[in-house]
Structures are given as structure tokens and as C-alpha cells.
Amino acid sequence: MDFNVRKLAADAGIFFSRAVQFTEEKLGQAERTELDAHFENLLSRADCTKNWTEKIYGQTEVLLQPNPGARIEEFLYEKLERKVPPRATNGEILGQYMLEAGKEFGADTPYGSTLIQVADCQRRLGGAEREFLQTSSISFLTPLRNFLEGDWRTISKERKLLENLRLDLDACKARLKKAKAAETKAAVRPRAVPDFQETRPRNYVLSASASALWHEELNKAQHELRVAQTEFDRQAEVTRLLVEGISSTHVNHLRCLREFVEAQAIYYNQCHQYMQELQKELGRACTSSSVGDSDPANPSAVLPLNSPSPLETDALQIEEVQPPASGTRNAKVLYDYTAADSSELSLRADELITVYHMPGMDSDWLIGERGNQKGKVPVTYLELLSWICYCFEMLPLFFALVCVLLWNI
Question: Family, per the entry (predicted)?
């Protein structure tokens, strides 16, 4: 391999001088050319856009693909410029397992048929998820990645070039300042007494030569400064145009964000619709199984068309419930509870009610009574009291009654 030694040495020298200039600026030993305030604001806005775009892009990737191994695999395929193999979603895999289990248990059994129904729903949910992932990747992730890997790399490259030209400009300003000081010093330096044995004094000749030399150095420094200033101004204008394009980037990202939200809304709406359909199917299956299990010879097993709903029947039964002769207990309400329907009893914290259990009731519920009111109450909202605890709970009321009687006497 053929190396250009001169070019390599020149580049190394330029790099070293820039490093020295940058270090002196950081230490406050050299002047620095400052950009205008508007340009600085544009650069700060560009940095802010880049930082937040990186964070949003990374977290969106995590949202769409929580598995880090799968993300690394997709990254490697992308770098190798190969197509990512199709991968089933978690919902599709779950649906496949349920379908196979339902077939093995038997489609004519309640559990097997329900597994098959749920498997079909999971498969559709997985398909909707796959479509959402593809749409979000194209409409949202790709524009963000294109900005980071395309526009921002160009901006970073031009900003780095602008910084190097600024360092060169400051170095030229320092050389010009040094040349001016040296020329002024050479011009005002007192000349030594001339030697009259010579037609032209040697000190005078040396002084004139030094002055001419520094004048030439000054002209050279001024020329280099003009060139450096021109290159810096041109590069600053190029960089300014690029960072002003951040506004267009924001507009583009806003459009992509709206498309991402729209894709999310469509996906969740589909999931809600599929789950509602599944609930209706399972509800119809439960109803048909209940009717199938009833005795056709029993006329009471067949409900009339105008029969009350289960909630109304439950409410009527609760109104007609009579407390058992034994087994009632007192309970203290721990939290407020609002009745969901007319079959339940609303509760207030710290009040005392009478509760009892009826045969056939769910173990999580009891029948509660408070005066003339009656209804179902959840067990988790109650603290069942023994006779002794009930006496302690009633002690304040007893003392209050005693005090009232003594006061009246």
C-alpha cells in the first residue's frame, strides 16, 4: 500500500495544532470566535432533537418488540442486508397451542370446544398485532431511524468541519496578532550607534531586514486570515441551512407520530372487537349448555319469553329470603361499598350489620340486614364479630344510654 508521507505528516501537524488550540481555549489562554445567538439556538435545538429522537426510537423498539434477543437478531439481519425471517407473534403461538390442546381433548367436550374458540380469537389477535407492528415500523420507526442515520450524520459531519475551521480561524487570528506585535517592536527598536568606518552601518541593515521580514510575515498572516474567514463563513452558512431544516424534521415526525397513534387505535379497537365477539360466543355456549342440561320433561326448566332477567330474579329471591333461626352473626363494615344492583346492599364504613349465609350462595357473599334493608354484601368488606367482640363494640353505645338516663334522673 502506497502511503503519502508528506500528506500524513501535514495532517498530523494540523491535528496537533488544532488540539493545542482547543486545549488553550478550554484553559482560557486563547481567544475563541463565538457564533451568533440565533445560530447557537439552532444548534442547541438540533442537539435536543437528536437526543430525544434517540430515546423515543429506542423505547418504541422496546414497546414493539420486548424481547431483546429478537431485537438483536433483527439488527444483525438489517446490517447484513438480509430479509428478516417471519416470526409468529405470542398470540399466534398461544392460539396454536390452544388449538392443538382442544383437538386432543376433543372438540365435542366443553373444555375442548372452548379452547378451540379461544384459540381462534388468539390467532386473530396475533394477526392484528403483526399488522400493527409492520405499520408502526414503516410509518414511525423508519423515519426516526432515517433521521438519525441520514440527516443527523450529515449535520454532525458539517458541524465537525465548522469546528475545525473555527480553530484554524482562531489560530490565524493569533498569528496575525503576533506578527503585528513583532513588526511594531522591530519598527520602534532603537538603533545602535553606526560604525563610521563602514559606508552603511551593519545594525541599520539588520534592523531594516528584520522589519521587512516581519512585514512580509504580517502580509502572509493577513492573507491566511482572509482565506480562513472566507472558508469559515461559507461552512457556517452551510451548517446553518442544515440545522434550520430541523423544523421540517419536526413537521415530518409529527405526521409520523399521528400515524403511529392511528395504528395503535386501530389495533386496540380490533382487539376489543375480537374479545367482545369471543365473550358473546362463550356466553351463547354457556346458555346453550345450561338449556341442554335442563330436563325437557320439566316445564319449569323452560323459561318463558317474558321471564325476568337473572338479576331481577336474584333480587326477588333476596327480598323473600328469611334469616335462619340460628347462624346469624354481627359484622363490622371495614370500607364503604356501593351496591352494583338492587340485589346488593350499600355499606358505610364502621357501621354494624347482621349477616348470615344462605344455602347455594357463593362463599364470597353473605346476606346483610340493616333495619328494613336487605341485600348481598361482600365478605371482604366485613369483619365478623363474635359475641364478646360485639359486646365491646356496643359498650360506647351502652355507656351513652346510661349517661342519658342518669342525666334525665
Answer: Belongs to the endophilin family.
